[in-house]
Structure formats: C-alpha cells, structure tokens
Amino acid sequence: MNASSCSLCKIWNSSIGKKYLVAITGLVLVLFLAGHLGGNLLIFVGKEEFDAYAKSLHELLHGAGVWIARAVLLSCLVIHVAATISLTRANRAASPKYGLTILAFVVYHLLHFTVRIDSHLAELAKTSPHAMVIAGFQNGVVVLFYVIAMTLLCSHLSHGVASIFQTVGLRSKKSAPLIDKLSKAYAWGIWAGFISIPTAIYFFQFGA
C-alpha cells in the first residue's frame, strides 16, 4: 500500500477526516446546485436560449467537459453520502435514508435526462433539449418523485450549508444566527427554483 493510499485510509478512518470530506464534497455540490439551477431556469426565458445553453455545455472541451463534470459530481455525491452515513451510524443519530434516497434520485435523473433511456426523450434531445425537458415532465409520477427528492435534498441543505461553515471553523456564536438564516434562505431558494420547472410544465402546461 503506497503513502497516498495510507493517507486516504487515515482520513476515512478518522471522524474529523470524514467531517472534512462531507464539508468539501458538500461545498462542491452546493455550488453546483446554484449553477445548475441558473442554467435550468433559462427554460423560462425561451427555447432558443435554453437550447443554446445546453449546446454550449455539451460542446465544452469537445464534448468531454460535461462528462468530466458529471464524473466529479457523482463521485462527490457518493463520497458525501457514504461519509455522512458512516458518521451518522457512529453517532447513532437519525436514519441516513435520505442520503440513499437522494443518491437514487440522482441516478434516476441521469438515466432520465442524461443517458436518456427513454427513446422518445433521446430523439427530442437531438433537436431540442427544451422540448426534451417539457416532454420529460409530462408524467405525474416523475414530477412527484422529483418534488419529493428535491424536498428531501433541501431539508438537508437547510442545516448542511451551516455545517460546512462550522467544519471549516467559520461559524461562531456571533455569526451563527446569520449563517443559519443564509443556509435556510439558500435551501428555500434552491427548492423553489428547481420545483418551479416540473410544476409549471405539468400543472400549468408551460411550453406545451
């Protein structure tokens, strides 16, 4: 076993190490959610703008950029959930099932909109990602699953963002109230932004 492997083992076997892993991967995911939401909300701006945004992502680094980003994000998510579950079990805290639920949702979301196992969505994606998203949220079960998953995610974000500040030593008694408010505001903003898309499409026939 080389030195780097030993170092990784020490980090994983340490509760402090796992807390830092949770914080670092959590920060990556928090920043990604904000950026991803900003891009997704372009669907309300117009078809051309949304399709142009999707095209720019898929052409990044000659098509490799988006897959590199997905691999990094999925790795961060797996590490984040695994470390959180490990810490939760060690502390005998609440059940970590939310983490597995969110992980299952991400895998499903990738299959639904990225790998596009639905042949109809795959065909639409070739001409218009905007049309693909509109078609993808015509199914009530998909919309319900999406809303539930986002609600679980954002219920975690409401205290998870504050935990990042605490782990890296930026949370104090003086700053705690402000950090807690910012954390909750961020979670509510992410929740409202993400569920606005499927609910507008399904209930108000946006884009139909």
List keywords for this structure.
single chain; 208 residues; mainly alpha; 9 helices
Quick gist of this model?
This protein has 208 residues and is mostly helical.
Q: Provide the residue-averaged pLDDT.
A: 85
Low-confidence stretches: none
Report the total helices. Answer: 9
Shape: globular
Give the strand tally.
Answer: 0
Query: How many angstroms does the end-to-end distance come to?
Result: 58 Å
What percent of residues are in strands?
A: under 5%
Instruction: Compute the number of structural domains.
Output: 1
Largest sheet: none
Q: Report helical residue fraction.
A: over 70%
What is the element string, with H for helices and E for strands?
HHHHHHHHH
Structural class: mainly alpha
Rounded radius of gyration (Å): 19 Å
Task: Give a structural overview.
It is a single chain. By secondary structure, this protein is mainly α. The chain has one domain. It has helices at residues 3-13, 15-40, 47-59, 64-91, 97-114, 119-127, 129-136, 140-167, 176-203. α6 (119-127) packs antiparallel against α7. It is globular, with a radius of gyration of 19 Å. The termini are far apart. The mean pLDDT is 85.
